[in-house]
Structures are given as structure tokens and as C-alpha cells.
Amino acid sequence: MAVRPRLRGAALLGAVPFLVYVAIFLIIPTLVVAIGAFTGDGGHGFTLDNVRALGDEYILAAFGRSVLLSALSALFGAVFGALLAYALSTAKPGGLLRRTVTAASGVLAQFGGVTLAFAFLATIGISGFVTVWLQEHAGVDIYANGVWLFELPGLTLVYTYFQIPLMVIVFLPALDGIRPQWREATENLGGTTWQYWTRVAGPLLAPAFLGSALLLFANAFSAYATAAALVSQGNPIIPLQIRGALTSEVVLGQANLGKAMALGMVVVVAVVMTLYSLLQRRTARWLG
User: Fold this and answer.
1) What is the per-residue pLDDT for 123?
2) Is 284's pLDDT higher than 90?
3) Is pTM beyond 0.90 here?
4) Residue 124: inside a domain, yes or no?
5) How many distinct structural domains can be found in the chain?
6) pLDDT per residue over 150-188, tens digit each?
7) Per the database record, which ranges form the ABC transmembrane type-1 domain (predicted)?
8) CATH assignment of the domain containing 184
């Protein structure tokens, strides 16, 4: 009986580094944001002015563009990533193709920020390799109607680049959970491929697909570095609005407004991740 408390204490001791990490990089920053959002300019007194300012037109517009960007990139990433994951699930388990694509997806899902922005600028930027080649050899100007790479369509394209491999990583386990015996049973009962996907596999995979799409939405909604590297003027999305509030030399005293906007992002991401957790539980119930 005396040994068990010691074992439990040793197990908790092993979790200390993780708990310290979570406290430093998640709990403390969240508390700083939450407190600052309800603190007046100069750090004096409680106020609701910062939260009320979230109703200003330019902030609502930035939130709207962020939601649209996240939804579009999550949709494209989920669809194309799910197709790639399905093709990968039909490959030999443990084979070279599957291991290579999975490893590449793990790398590309984290390939963001300045590096990704530079890659797109060098490829399809105004003076990018592909842009110049198309102009000289095909007479095609992809920017004939404006430089869309630095606007919402361009950000959607760039974000989709790292959303697709992320979808492969998070959706592939659900596809692996589909048992071949279920398809065989459907065929033995006279069912078609369409009936199998719409009545058996589809309903089973739907929670996993929706949960993965929500994860992609949260991933895009909280992304900052890639957009900051691409967009040098203006603040079209909410992370860049926060940057402007914290670093602007033109309009001073907006640091706590930036924290209020960050708190709004925390609330949105918390809601999305709660829904994701619920869908994951339902997925595990059927495919675990």
C-alpha cells in the first residue's frame, strides 16, 4: 500500500516538464491577454472599452475576413487532403510510398511562415519563375486583373498549401480504421460501391472528416507569420490587426485593444476545438 503513493508521485514528477511548458506558453499568455483586455490604457483600472471596441466596423471586417480565409482554406485542404489520404490508405501498410508521403506531410504541414511566403514569391510572385515563364512563353499574365497573391485569394492558396498535408496526417488514421470486412459484407448483401460509401463508410467517416476540417480551420485562423510575410501594407485579417495595435507608431495606446482582439481569437479557437474534441470522441467510438 505504501508503494502505490510513491509510484503515483513518480508519475506526476515525470509530468512536471510538460506542465511547466503548458503554464509558460499557454496558461500565462492567456491570462495576460484576458486581464489586459479588461484593463484601461496605461494599465489603470477595469474597463469594458476594449471589448466594446471589438464591435467597430474595421475589427468586425477583419474577423470576417479571417473566418472566410480559414473556412476556405479548411474546405480546400479537407477535400484534397482527404482524397490524398484515401489514396494513401490503399497503399501497402509500411511500404515505401506510404512512409515517404506520410513523412513529407509531417514536414510540409509545418512549412509555414517566412519560408513558405518566400517560396510562393519566388514561384508565382510578380517576378517569380512561373509568372515570368508564363508571360514569356505562353503570353499569360496571371496578374492581369491585379496582384491577388497579397490579398485574400492569394492567402487562401498559400494557406491551403500547408492545410492539405495536415489533413493527410489527421484523417489517415480514420481511414485506416475502416475494416475491409465491412465492404465485403456490403457486397455480399448485394450493395453497390455507392451504397457502401453513402450508408456505411461515409457516415462512419463523417465525424472524423468534420473534426479534421475544424482542426484545419483553427490552424488557419491562428496563423500569423505567413500572412505577415506576404502582406506588407494593411491589416486584412485579425492577426495582422493585433500586430498593428501592438506595434503601431501612429496610433499609440492600443496595446490592450490588441489583447481584446486576441481574446476574441482565443474564444473562437476554444469553441472550434471543443467541437473538434466532441467529434473525435464520436469517431473513436466507432473506429477506435
Assistant:
1) 94
2) no
3) no
4) no
5) 1
6) 889 999 999 999 999 999 999 999 999 888 888 889 888
7) 63-278
8) 1.10.3720.10
